[in-house]
Amino acid sequence: MFDRKEYHRKYYETHREAYKAASRRHYMAHREERNAASRRYCEAHREECNAASRRYYMAHRAEIAEKKDAYKSRPRGDKYAWIKRGRLQAGLTLQMLATAAGCSESHLSRLERGEGDASPEMQERIAHALTRLLAGI
Questions:
Q1: 73-103 burial string, b = 16+ CB within 10 Å, else e?
Q2: What separation, in Å, do the N-terminal and C-terminal C-alpha atoms of the chain show?
Q3: Can you give the residue ranges of every domain in the chain?
Q4: Angle at which helices 81-90 and 105-113 cross, to 10°
Q5: Is the pLDDT of residue 32 over 70?
Q6: Average pLDDT for residues 69-98, to the nearest whole number?
Q7: In CATH terms, is domain 81-135 a member of 1.10.260.40?
Q8: Which of 13, 49, 112, 126 could be 84's S-S partner, Cβ–Cβ 3.0 to 4.6 Å?
Q9: What CA–CA distances, in Å, run from 97 to 11, 36, 93, 101?
Q10: What are 116-133's pLDDT values in tens digits?
Q11: How many whole angstroms separate alpha carbon 16 and alpha carbon 92?
Q12: What is the C-alpha separation between 107 and 98, in angstroms, rounded?
């Protein structure tokens, strides 16, 4: 009995390399054509995109400048000013307080400047460390 699947499988196996080579030749023959079309599309739309970007900026430049100014002059906040006050009152360095609180100097510095945020647990550890160091324990 003739098995069509088996026939096609064997045919494909014997001609596989020829199929691969033909497919590769076809791909390579049209590669430059695809690249050229892609370049033409990019060049045609580059100026259009740049012009649209310029139009948007010119239409919204006052709003953009306001947002930049608002960001630069945003309040840094005194949320963690108590850390710096307590540290300076106790005559401590950032390193001493960071070691006592179990955190990094950079983290404490960011908190003092109002640039970071601390978890409630970290706030408690800093407060306890300040209390101990202020009391001289």
A1: eeeeeeebeebbebbeebebebeebbebbeb
A2: 97
A3: 1-74, 81-135
A4: 120
A5: yes
A6: 82
A7: yes
A8: 112
A9: 79, 64, 6, 6
A10: 888 999 999 999 999 988
A11: 77
A12: 8
